[in-house]
Design goal:
The structure holds 2 protein chains of 2 kinds.
Chain A (H helix, E strand, L loop, with lengths): L1 E5 L2 E5 L7 H8 L18 E4 L2 E4 L12 E3 L1 H4 L3 H12 L9 H14 L5 H8 L9 H13 L2
Parallel strand pairs in A: 1-5
Antiparallel strand pairs in A: 1-2, 3-4, 3-5
Helix pairs in contact in A: 3-4, 3-6, 4-5
Chain B lengths: L4 E2 L38 E4 L2 E3 L5 E5 L8 H13 L6 E5 L4 H4 L14 H28 L7 E3 L2 E4 L4 E4 H8 L48 E7 L6 E6 L9 E6 L3 E6 L2 H10 L1 E5 L8 H11 L5 E6 L2 H6 L3 E8 L11 E7 L2 E6 L4 H12 L6 E5 L13 H10 L6 E4 L2 H6 L7 E10 L2 E11 L2 H5 L4 E2 L2 E2 L15 E8 L13 H20 L4 H7 L5 H14 L9 E8 L5 E10 L5 E11 L6 H21 L4 E2 L2 E2 L18 E5 L12 H18 L18
Parallel strand pairs in B: 1-5, 4-5, 9-19, 17-18, 21-24, 27-30
Antiparallel strand pairs in B: 2-3, 3-4, 6-7, 7-8, 9-12, 10-13, 11-12, 14-24, 15-20, 16-17, 16-19, 20-21, 22-23, 25-26, 26-27, 28-29
Classes of the chains: A alpha+beta, B alpha+beta.
């Protein structure tokens, strides 16, 4: 059994240690908000936080996590920046299909956690790993700035 | 609003419309205003398939079109709620079940979402459905109060009788309204009195998409579900020859290996077990007939075919004589095979039980999925329940039921529900691809105007497979869309379609469909003709738009908003495109810079649109922004190639798409209009590709004639 701390709860899972966290949260624990997009850390749909830092859960092996705190989209609204960004996402009507948006919000939250007033260059650097096929980038940029301005 | 739920119900007998005519799909079926079985007994008042009013005042609207990001659940709900005068805060939406009799798209004649026509097709039927329901509620109130119905009005989910100051909420009237026969042809509102339509209302589907609660097909978790992934022949159309599964069976969590003639699936406790099991299989494939197919061969065949005369789709004036006069300009343009790559990889969950089956999916073709699951499981459709979900992007990939048929075939071998998820690599390598096209264009200029125009489109006829009635006498109505209705005023005009299928490759619809290819070819050629005529690309277009005042107005607006004609730095350019596609009139300017190595940077995009009545203007802006980015991705990077029958791309590293750091500001300007609504979902994609191509032409003088852009042609000559 591998013990994990996910969204503040201790969970035990019976999977091989090389199992990527993505499939543990989705298939074993049923937290389906975190999405599978590419499996090779190219698209960012699977982004979660490890001690507040963004990681691609499709390549993160559960055996390597230890006691570090995992946060998924289901719990990001409990953080100040997460909630602020969720609201900005709705106020600016960022979302189209929504499939990539869990990952977008996780990356954006991590950005605001370290850079409270990001520039365009900061946003590009933090968000370029998250693909959106619907093409919501223009509004993502605007929503991050809106959320940052509300602090 | 909560997550949409699925109204699962057996299907009514399917009913298909006939299609005819070139250039547009005609209205083929009318929707019955009677209730559907899915609604029966589920609410106090359910006057038709689209509306239920509960006694607590909740209004549930059943969505005949699927939500894949285009905002259609909100737009269709606004149309229904407008005529119903529902309280918008009490509106809930629900996915329609497979039921072609009640939910067929009137413009497609089948239960499908595509061709940017959801609002166009359902505009009148849903207005009538809402108005008929409203009439029943008014009648019920009027009878209760013993007043004439005509003296009552409705507002925000209530009937109001001003002379006596009485008011009754819809919920309180619901039970009695059920006894009123809905009028067949209720009066519709004067658009001037619309209270919801035309406002940028918040989308109904987005709150759950910010917190992980939204359920896409891939999120279906029926109790006891197992997880599967699969391998199909690397050579398109190949079969399984032999499987050695000794090592795969040793992988922890692997439960079962399913070998079918064309695929091998591994079923496990989770996707990782299935994936590791798959990787441990030793599969020998029988390549079949396509083992030597290459993109080079596809292009050679297509170019050879383009020498043939095609089937005539449109013939105006005397093209033969008009082109004989000499001075003909001839050019060719090509578009590549493309994959769809929606963010949600292809998937379907199926549970086959004795005498029954249940499926979970997000699809654009619910009834086709229903039929496919039934066929694969050897059941009748009445034995199969399909739950539709939100789609994590569609773009045409989910107009195909192949993944459902396949998942159901796997599920017949599995005890309990199985979720079949393709890896991204399978998704890219076994797509149903946007066809490659080769377009020949000929024109003759006379005194700076186009006197003659011939357009020959050579490529796959998607309709011949997808909807055979729309392929008649050698002409694919989609393949010639936006070419037969070219907006320019040209006295001698011929459009031909030349069907040539790529060996081994199945082709399908891709965002922008036929107009994508045709608008690219037309707008590229027009730019070259303008240069030949010594005219500014805008002025040249404008001079030919006398018969398209709506498009000309869009052109004028985009010129004004984009800074057209103002100075730019060296190797920067602006390109224009105009299009009448999907019954929307759009003019777009892309501004780009090309560096000395030939790399293209996007500086700015401006677009002006007359889409008729804008049901939800903010959604229209969003669709154009997104559609433009989708098109720019394809123009900059998109190409599927084959060698030895195998697709060479596999994931987002080699099938690249635009990212946020490459995305320019995109300004969308709406033109107010009282015309009926046009289509919007695909228009930005169609617009942006030729606009970028023409911007590069302006920046470098290099007339690109193939997509995606070839940077080697754009490098600065030293």
């Amino acid at each position: 059994m591998i013990a994990l701390v996910i969204n503040g709860e201790r969970r035990e899972v019976d999977v091989p240690p090389d199992t990527p966290l993505l499939w543990v949260v989705r298939d074993v624990l049923g937290l389906t908000g975190t999405k599978f997009g590419c499996g090779i850390a190219q698209c960012g749909a699977c982004t979660v936080h490890l001690d507040g830092r963004p990681v691609r859960s499709c390549l993160l092996r559960v055996g390597s996590i230890g006691a570090r705190a995992i946060t998924t989209i289901e719990a990001i609204g409990a953080t100040a920046n997460g909630a602020r960004l969720q609201q900005a996402w709705l106020d600016l009507e960022v979302i189209q299909c929504g499939y990539c948006q869990s990952g977008q919000l996780m990356s954006a939250t991590a950005l605001l956690n370290t850079v409270p007033r990001p520039t365009d260059a900061d946003i590009d650097a933090a968000m370029a790993g998250n693909i959106c096929r619907c093409g919501t980038y223009v509004r993502i940029r605007e929503a991050i700035k809106t959320a940052a301005a509300r602090v | 609003m909560g997550a949409p739920t699925s109204a699962a119900a057996p299907s009514d007998p399917s009913r298909r419309g006939l299609l005819s005519g070139a250039g547009a799909l005609l209205v083929a079926v009318s929707l019955p205003l009677a209730g559907s079985r899915a609604n029966a007994g589920r609410a106090a008042f359910a006057p038709n398939a689209f509306i239920r009013v509960d006694s607590n005042g909740d209004v549930t609207l059943v969505m005949p079109q699927v939500e894949m990001g285009q905002g259609v659940y909100t737009a269709l709900s606004m149309i229904l709620a407008e005529e119903l005068d529902a309280d918008w805060a009490k509106v809930k939406v629900e996915h329609a079940p497979p039921d072609e009799a009640h939910f067929a798209n009137p413009m497609l004649g089948m239960q499908a979402t595509g061709n940017s026509n959801s609002v166009r097709a359902f505009w009148t039927p849903l207005r009538k459905a809402g108005a008929a329901a409203r009439a029943c509620l008014v009648e019920a109130a009027a009878r209760g109060w013993s007043v004439p119905a005509a003296t009552c009005r409705t507002l925000d989910g209530a009937v109001i009788h001003d002379p006596t100051g009485r008011r009754a909420a819809y919920g309180d009237l619901a039970a009695r309204a059920g006894a009123v026969t809905p009028p067949a042809d209720p009066p519709l509102k004067d658009p001037a009195s619309f209270r919801l339509i035309g406002r940028p209302l918040k989308r109904l589907d987005t709150p759950d998409k910010t917190n992980g609660a939204a359920k896409f097909g891939i999120d279906a978790m029926p109790p006891g579900v197992k997880f599967a992934t699969l391998a199909q022949s690397p050579v398109l159309g190949g079969k399984v020859a032999h499987v050695d599964d000794a090592q795969a069976r040793q992988v922890p969590g692997v439960r079962q290996i399913v070998v079918l003639d064309d695929l091998v699936a591994v079923v496990g406790d989770h996707m990782w077990a299935a994936k590791r099991g798959l990787d441990a299989l030793k599969i020998t494939w029988d390549d079949g007939p396509n083992g030597q197919v290459s993109t080079d061969e596809i292009w050679t065949r297509l170019r050879q075919a383009s020498a043939r005369e095609g089937a005539i789709a449109k013939d105006v004036g005397d093209i033969g004589r008009a082109l004989e006069a000499g001075g003909v300009v001839a050019q060719t343009y090509e578009m590549p095979l493309l994959a769809h790559a929606p963010m949600e990889p292809v998937n379907c969950t199926v549970h086959v039980k004795p005498g029954a089956a249940e499926a979970w999916i997000g699809t654009q073709v619910l009834e086709r999925v229903h039929a496919a699951v039934a066929k694969a499981a050897g059941l009748t459709e009445s034995q199969v329940v399909v739950h539709n979900h939100l789609l994590g992007g569609g773009f045409g990939r989910k107009l195909e039921p192949d993944m459902a048929y396949q998942a159901a075939r796997i599920a017949t071998k599995v005890d309990g529900p199985v979720k079949v998820v393709w890896t991204r690599e399978e998704d890219i390598r076994h797509d149903i691809y946007r066809p490659a096209y080769h377009d020949n264009l000929w024109a003759r200029l006379e005194n700076g105007r186009i006197a003659a125009w011939k357009h020959r489109i050579s490529g796959s006829a998607v309709m011949a497979r997808f909807l055979p009635p729309a392929f008649q006498k050698g002409v694919d109505v989609d393949g010639v869309d936006s070419a037969v209705d070219i907006p320019y005023d040209i006295p001698n005009l011929r459009v031909e379609f030349n069907r040539e299928e790529p060996p081994g490759v199945i082709t399908g619809f891709w965002r922008g469909v036929g107009p994508n290819n045709n608008v690219f070819a037309i707008e590229s050629f027009i730019d070259e003709l303008a240069r030949q005529a010594g005219q500014d690309p805008v002025a040249f277009r404008r001079a030919h738009l006398d018969k398209s005042p709506r498009l000309r107005a869009a052109l004028d607006l985009v010129v004004q908003q984009s800074g057209w004609g103002t100075p730019l730095p060296p190797r920067c350019g602006r390109g224009i495109s105009v299009q009448p596609s999907f019954a929307s009139f759009i003019a777009t300017v892309v501004e780009c810079a090309v560096d000395s190595a030939g790399e293209v940077a996007l500086r700015r995009v401006t677009t002006a649109v007359d889409t008729g009545i804008a049901v939800n203007p903010d959604t229209i802006v969003a669709q154009l922004q997104g559609g433009i980015i989708f098109g720019l991705s394809a123009a900059l990077y998109g190409e599927i190639t084959l060698e030895r029958g195998r697709v060479q791309q596999s994931n987002f590293h080699d099938y690249r798409v635009l990212r946020i750091d490459q995305t320019p500001p995109i300004d969308v300007h709406l033109i107010k209009s009282a015309e009926p609504p046009g289509g919007i979902g695909e228009t930005g994609t169609t617009a942006s590709i030729p606009a970028l191509r023409n911007a590069i032409y302006a920046a470098t003088g290099v007339p690109l004639r193939r997509m995606p852009i070839d940077r080697s042609l754009l490098a600065a000559k030293s």
